[in-house]
Amino acid sequence: MIARRTLLAAGLALAAGPALAQAGTRIFAAASLQTALTRIAAGYRGPGAPLRVSFGASSAMARQIAQGAPADLFISADIEWMDWLAQRRLIVGGTRRNILSNRLVLIAPKSSTVGLEIGPGMPLAAALSGGRLAIADPVSVPAGKYGKAALTKLGVWDSVAGRLAPAENVRAALAYVARGETPLGIVYATDARAEPKVKVVGIFPQATHPRILYPAALAKASPAGRAVLDYLSGPKAMAVFAAEGFLKP
Q1: pLDDT tens per residue, range 52-69
Q2: Extended beta strands in 78-190, E state
Q3: Domains of the chain with bracketed CATH
Q4: N or C: which terminus of the chain carries fewer CB neighbours within 10 A?
């Protein structure tokens, strides 16, 4: 049985003076941002430092905020979960902005010899060779919803719907493939880039799924939080995101 792992990263307590170290800015972010945002948090020394970041499925992060978790800033991997919080008046008006975009890819273990051209009617089920397809939960997690939309558009969802290895977030799906527990998986391009044990089999055409956008917004009003949000959408942070493969929205 495929082991399930929770990929909620512990908050990063960074040295920035005694007073700020007790406060800081708490960021709840989509799991796919883990590599890039951890780098950014480690180097941030502006207002609201240190940055303490928790990663997980956008759905899980949003629900935790709704349940009263102490988040100052939320970054989602799709607009729907940000809308969900907005409808509940749990984000600060006027602070929401789309800061990043991404691509959706099909991956395999690095040693795999699978060759598959992504297109309508592609033999995805046959390519699994009796194994399962790693994918984030296609019901609630953005990466999984994008993946289901793409496979449905290509006419192959029904052929693999009963052969999924659903994961709690996209990094968990990535781990299944990296460990060789599944022969194929669907993740973001940035996840594949961050994991040397996998390779990209193909890139899903953007027309097959809703555009992948990462909206960010304050969950609490504060000058320090706004400064952090401005920094994350500014040139220095964007250079780090770009280096990790993220695209501008």
Answers
A1: 999 999 999 999 999 999
A2: 97-101, 104-109, 133-136, 164-167, 184-188
A3: 18-101+213-243 (3.40.190.10), 104-208 (3.40.190.10)
A4: N
Q: Which of 93, 90, 81, 128 is nearest to 109 (CA)?
A: 128
Tokens of 182: 């599944």
Residues 97-156: pLDDT tens digits? 999 999 999 999 999 999 899 999 999 999 999 999 999 999 999 999 999 999 999 999
Can you list the pairs that 189-197 forms with residues at least 24 positions away whose Cβ atoms lie under 8 Å? 189/102, 189/103, 189/104, 189/105, 189/245, 190/32, 190/35, 190/36, 190/102, 190/244, 190/245, 190/246, 191/32, 192/105, 192/107, 193/244, 193/245, 194/34, 194/35, 194/244, 196/110, 197/109, 197/110
